[in-house]
Amino acid sequence: MSTAPHLPLWAALLVAALVVAGAAITLVGSIGLVRLNNFYARVHAPTLGATLGVGGVLVGSMICFSVLQSRPLLHEVLIAVFVTITTPVTLMLLARAALHRDRVEGNPEVPQSDLASLERRDG
């Protein structure tokens, strides 16, 4: 005897596709984290993968629970808003901290600032 709720076939296929697609996008971001060569390249892949991957899983969750409860459920929208806001902010803070650290240490692989490139071009 199964106590799992009955989800129509169309909804189950749609939810499965969205969850698998979200997980695959997150996996690609994680692979990018491992494969890219420096911090400044590595920081973008997991950020984009996490945002898009979580989006796919959340849309799948919204569809699943909206169909099961016969009314729209929008709790996941709050999660999506928070992930969409906090992920880029975290990326910017990490990148700025790494830039500051690398510039103080005199690391030659640090990307040049816009101000420094403008001064070289004008001077």
TrEMBL record:
Alphabetized UniProt keyword annotations: Membrane, Transmembrane, Transmembrane helix
Cited InterPro entries: PhaG_MnhG_YufB (IPR005133)
Source organism: Ancylobacter oerskovii
Span of the signal peptide: none
Disordered, as annotated region: 104-123
Protein known as: Monovalent cation/H(+) antiporter subunit G
Coiled-coil boundaries: none
Transmembrane segments: 12-36, 48-68, 74-95
